[in-house]
Design goal:
43% of the residues lie in helices and 21% in strands. The protein is α/β, with parallel strands linked by helices and 327 residues long. It has 2 domains: 135 residues, ATPase, nucleotide binding domain (Nucleotidyltransferase, domain 5, 2-Layer Sandwich), CATH 3.30.420.40; 167 residues, Nucleotidyltransferase, domain 5, CATH 3.30.420.40.
Length: 327
């Protein structure tokens, strides 16, 4: 692809997705490996290498006017977003780079640039209520140990706990989930080793969420209860982010692919708290939102809003001084 293109990158717990667009063509690439981490934080050097490899395979070889990266863990687990700028600008010949939390790119993907609340639910959960100007309300996004209630890792954890209760003979267990756990992970001690020795336990926990969905659709009451509570938790986090905004709600992330299990309790929880709530299906994905941010950055119509959104250019950019690489 020639110079003049734009790229949107979605970095989530389920992998990396890249959308590239020029005047006459578009392309898409992805990988499904977990986000690289170092001592819990997102490893930006390794992440940059993976983004560049996917982008180059997808066709970004002639330079890009702008790229936007929506990354999980921002804010909180991304210490120095400028690392991506320094690592990507020369390799991909980028004119402008936007680094934003994946909740921002999911919001833009779902609602365009309109105000409202968007729940981003995949491996984890983070909700953003914003007008992309003066109102920035974050709800949840605290990781699988402290929050992310209703997300894929939460559902997988609840399902595995129910399976282990059945294995122990404790009340509240599910023999159906135990069979699915054994088929996927082996014996309980195999599961313990995998989760506790992993550098990405949330990824493994979330991988069991589809099994909990399978059990719920087959009529297992424990599994169905887990999904119902997941939807309710997502509704509660959406309501918490609605202050100062019109009650417009949307959603994004791969967890909502299980709409048959999730949507009714989600919508009901929001309506119970805010009867005037209005719901709009997402216009696009987080990768689509990142691509829209890249185009807006190239036009100069996006300004940084730290710690949610950063804009980097060779001269620094609005409100962002030129960065020097530090260690």
């Amino acid at each position: 692809m020639s110079r003049g293109g734009h790229a949107g990158v979605d970095v989530g717990g389920g992998g990396i997705r890249v959308r590239i667009e020029t005047a006459g063509e578009s392309a898409y690439g992805e990988d499904a490996a977990p986000v690289p981490r170092e001592k819990g934080r997102v490893d930006l050097d390794r992440l940059a290498s993976r983004i560049a490899e996917i982008a180059e395979k997808t066709g970004a070889v002639g330079g890009l006017d702008a790229m936007a990266v929506g990354v999980t863990g921002l804010p909180g687990l991304v210490r120095e977003p400028g690392v991506l700028w320094h690592a990507l600008r020369e390799r991909l010949r980028i004119g402008t780079l936007v680094v934003a939390g994946d909740m921002v790119t999911t919001h833009v993907g779902a609602l365009g640039f309109r105000p409202g609340v968007v729940v981003a639910a995949g491996t984890g959960v983070i909700t953003l209520g914003t007008d992309l100007n003066g109102v920035w309300n974050q709800s949840d996004g605290w990781g699988h140990l402290l929050g992310d209630q209703g997300g894929g890792a939460w559902i997988g954890t609840q399902g595995l706990q129910a399976a282990l209760r059945a294995y122990d003979g404790r009340s509240g267990g599910s023999a159906v989930l135990l069979d699915l756990m054994t088929a996927r992970f082996g014996e309980p001690l195999d599961l313990v080793a995998l989760v506790y020795e992993s550098g990405s336990p949330a990824h493994h926990l979330a991988s069991f969420a589809p099994c909990v969905g399978e059990a719920a659709r087959a009529g297992d009451p424990v599994a169905r209860g887990i999904w119902t509570e997941a939807g309710r938790q997502l509704g509660l986090t959406a309501v918490a982010a609605a202050g100062g905004l019109e009650p417009v709600f949307s959603w994004g992330g791969r967890l909502f692919d299980a709409a048959d299990l999730l949507m009714e309790p989600f919508l009901s929880a929001v309506r119970e708290a805010l009867p005037e709530a209005r719901f709009t299906p997402p216009l696009g994905t987080s990768a689509d939102g990142a691509l829209a941010l890249a185009k807006a950055a190239a036009d100069g119509t996006i300004r940084p809003r730290h710690p949610y959104l950063y804009v980097f250019t060779p001269t620094g950019g609005p409100g962002v001084p030129p960065l020097r690489r530090t260690r």
